[in-house]
Structures are given as structure tokens and as C-alpha cells.
Design brief:
This protein has about 130 residues and is mostly beta strands. The chain has two helices and eight strands. The protein has one domain: Electron Transport, Fmn-binding Protein, Chain A (Pnp Oxidase, Chain A, Roll), CATH 2.30.110. Strands 1, 2, 3, 4, 5, 6, 7 and 8 form an eight-stranded antiparallel sheet that branches. The model has no long low-confidence stretch (mean pLDDT about 95).
Length: about 130
């Protein structure tokens, strides 16, 4: 399993992340988006209402290199931040069964290659990064 149980628990507690993609001309795009962890594939899956029409879907189809970040501030006093960054290769898949009827049949599926986390594991100090 690429993710630790603490990372999976944290991801399950959040609803939004930010997906960074790059278009064929080298222009970066960063999009807030909902997501889910797919235990069958060990991936992060991103669905949407009209996913196949989006710039992020076209960017993934053209290249596939992505970074996805889920983070928050758990306390202001004392200052505590936590999050998970997933760097990897994504697929732009069509004709997939959506998790709900109002979503389209396209999905962006992120295969982690590097995972960086901070503040999600109480026993860990600072950031932890690893290739998977």
C-alpha cells in the first residue's frame, strides 16, 4: 500500500484538494476539486459533473504529470498545519462508472509516485516524503 493508514484517515476526513496539471505548451493549471481514494487501484480518483470537458482532463490526457495537495490548518494557536501531497502520473479515463448519478463517466486517476505528508501522523515530526 502506497499510503500510510494515517494518510488514508486524513484524506477520508477532507473533501477538497488542489490538482496541478500542465498543458502541452508548458502552462501550469491548479484546480480545486473533490476526490476519493480508490482502494481497489490504490489511486486518487477525481470525478466531476462534466469532467471530460475540463481543461484539467485535457491536460492529463496530453501529458499525465500531476501533483495533488490536500491540506488544512488544524489549529491557529498553537499553529498546526497538516496535509498530503501526491506527485504522480494520472490517466484521463472515459466510460467509467461514476460514484453518483449526477457525475459524468470520465475520471482522472492519479497513480502516486511520491507522497509527502505533514501533521497527519501524531508520532511524526516535520515532513515525511517517500517514493512509492
Amino acid at each position: 500500500m502506497a499510503f500510510t493508514q494515517e494518510e488514508l484517515d486524513y484524506l477520508a476526513s477532507r473533501r477538497l484538494g488542489r490538482l496541478a496539471t500542465i498543458d502541452p505548451g508548458g502552462v501550469l493549471q491548479n484546480s480545486p476539486t473533490a476526490f476519493s481514494y480508490n482502494p481497489e487501484t490504490g489511486t486518487i480518483d477525481i470525478h466531476g459533473r462534466a469532467m471530460g470537458t475540463t481543461k484539467k482532463f485535457r491536460n492529463v490526457r496530453a501529458g499525465g504529470q500531476v501533483a495533488f495537495v490536500v491540506d488544512d490548518v488544524s489549529s491557529f494557536t498553537p499553529w498546526r498545519v497538516r496535509g498530503v501531497e501526491i506527485r504522480g502520473v494520472a490517466e484521463a479515463l472515459e466510460d467509467q462508472e461514476p460514484p453518483s448519478p449526477y457525475m459524468s463517466r470520465e475520471v482522472i486517476r492519479i497513480h502516486p509516485k511520491r507522497i509527502i505528508s505533514w501533521g497527519v501522523d501524531p508520532g511524526q515530526e516535520g515532513m515525511s516524503g517517500r517514493d512509492v
